[in-house]
Amino acid sequence: MDTIILGNGPLGHAIAAAFRERGTEVPLLGRPIGRARDRTDLGAPDLTIEASRADAVGDNIAAALAAGCRRFVIATTGWDSDRAALEADLQAHGAAAVAAPNLSLGAALFFRLVERAAELLGPIDGFEPYLLEWHRRTKRDRPSGTARELARRVAAGFGEDPDRDIAVIRAGASPGMHLVGFDSPGETIELRLTARDRSAYAAGALAAADWLSRATRSAGLHPFDEVVDELLAAPAFAAIA
Q1: How far apart are the first and last CA of the chain?
Q2: For the domain that residue 186 is a member of, what is the CATH number?
């Protein structure tokens, strides 16, 4: 299968390195200078991994669709305002994409832990949730897609508006830390997810690519949870459980 990565930043390089560890060299394409991306830049990819920046996602997916690609992994975040148009474009071309606010397996399971904690603590008087996230100084979206998804899941358990305050830190080179806490007058419960580097995101991108390649998926956007559910049902995971 011919795969390309759109985006030659830290995430794109991490994904390319993960493919290289498998023995596969995958082209890493940066953003064209002074012009929009064209289908002729891409060749004829079977699968495209979008790992660039939020304002380039729509144009990159459109160019790859025009080049004949029908499988996508969208590892970029911060493009939610374009979601409806992008999904319509995918469906019109019969193409499937996996997208998530965070493509690491640990983050996907962290979402579920936080959701369950909110379900347990939400009905109890006295507990109040809070969220803090810290990313590198150059990260553009604030709060991050991961933080917004955590806020949505916490809000569901507490019956609140998901647009709650999120404490945001943009400093240094941290690849990502998310802290969800539940505070009461007498005690505090905290759950924390800390990324040490981008290898977990890259591993998730490859897992999503494998999931798309194993079977024909319905057109449109698929949440990473579908990939995670299939992984958890695999014999290796079942043996651990």
Answers
A1: 33
A2: 3.30.360.10
CA distance 184 to 188: 6
Task: Check if the beta carbon of residue 168 is closer than 8 Å to that of residue 179.
Answer: no
Q: Does the structure show a pLDDT above 80 at 6?
A: yes
Helix (H) or strand (E) holding 129: strand 128-135
Shared domain for 176 and 204, answered yes or no, is: no
152 with 209, same domain: the answer is no
CATH number of 51's domain: 3.40.50.720
**Catalytic site positions:** 135, 139
DSSP 217: P
Say how many domains are in the chain.
Answer: 2
Is residue 227 within 8 Å of 98, Cβ to Cβ? yes
SS3 72: strand
Give per-residue pLDDT as tens, 176-217: 999 999 999 999 999 999 999 999 999 999 999 999 999 999
Global pTM value: 0.87
Based on the fold, state whether residues 9 and 97 are members of the same structural domain.
yes
Average pLDDT in the 95-102 region?
95
* Structural domain that includes position 184: 105-194
- Are 85 and 57 contacting, i.e. CB atoms less than 8 angstroms apart? no
Query: Quick one: which of 207, 205, 223, 210 has its CA closest to 15?
Result: 205
Residue 78 structure tokens: 């911060």
DSSP 79-97: -GGGHHHHHHHHHHTT-EE
